[in-house]
Design goal:
Order of helices and strands: EEEHEEHEHHHEHEEE
CATH topology of one domain: Rossmann fold
Number of helices: 6
Bound molecules: adenosine-5'-triphosphate, magnesium ion
Oligomer: single chain
Strand content: 25-35%
Helix content: 25-40%
Shape: globular
Strand order of the largest sheet: 6-7-8-3-9-10
CATH class of one domain: Alpha Beta
Distance between the termini: 21 Å
CATH superfamily of one domain: P-loop containing nucleotide triphosphate hydrolases
Largest sheet: 6 strands, mixed
Number of strands: 10
Radius of gyration: 18 Å
Amino acid sequence: MTALAINCSHITKSFKTKEVETVALRGIDLTVSKGEFVMLVGPSGCGKTTLISIIAGILHQDDGDCWVQGQNYTQMTASQLLDFRAKHIGFIFQSFNLIPTLSVVENVAIPLIINQVERQEAIKQAGDMLEKVSLGNRLHSSPNQLSGGQQQRIAIARALVHKPSILICDEPTSALDHATGTKILELMRAINKDLKTTFVVVTHDARIYQYADRIAHMDDGTITDITTNTW
Ligand SMILES: Nc1ncnc2c1ncn2[C@@H]1O[C@H](COP(=O)(O)OP(=O)(O)OP(=O)(O)O)[C@@H](O)[C@H]1O
Ligand SMILES: [Mg+2]
């Protein structure tokens, strides 16, 4: 049996506000093998961000279980969960979330510093990771001085610098033109192969479906179909 990176079983999640209750996930079953590259696709509001937030341990489900790297989040204390996330999960937000007052290399060093790597070593490893995404010549720039595609590559470097087991990514190409988006996906695929990192990528962009091993199609809080790409 292939080792599983992610095992979601009957996950449900609703959001309650004063006026309405929105059911975001209606019983999700999804397994992802270690080293697999899976995309989540579906219309706006179908629950994609909710699902990846639960997988990342950022949001808690109402019901069901989520095992990640063999561990069940519901059985962890808050500090065990923080520690687990810091070590095992890389998360790339749609809006990049770079810190404008820090340089490019300092932004990328943050996850290492959180994991108690000494500052000088953290900066060195961050520089090495930025080389991998072809930004080794921009280490001391401010993120604001770089293009959208370059900022996306900083976010990728920051999400990968501590070598997480799983990289979770919300809409990596939505802000990018097609040529840059293709380069980003090629880079992710190369990292997936080199470091055996498991990828879960949310996208609306049908042009990048070809980079996935499997595509989970979602609609209205459920997974309606899973297709496998042949290589
Ligand atoms: N914090 C929240 N409070 C209330 N409702 C929420 C909250 N977060 C999400 N929802 C609702 O849950 C449903 C699923 O939202 P989610 O963000 O997971 O969709 P999505 O598939 O990521 O959509 P998009 O493609 O537009 O990003 C939506 O109806 C949304 O309005
Ligand atoms: Mg979303």
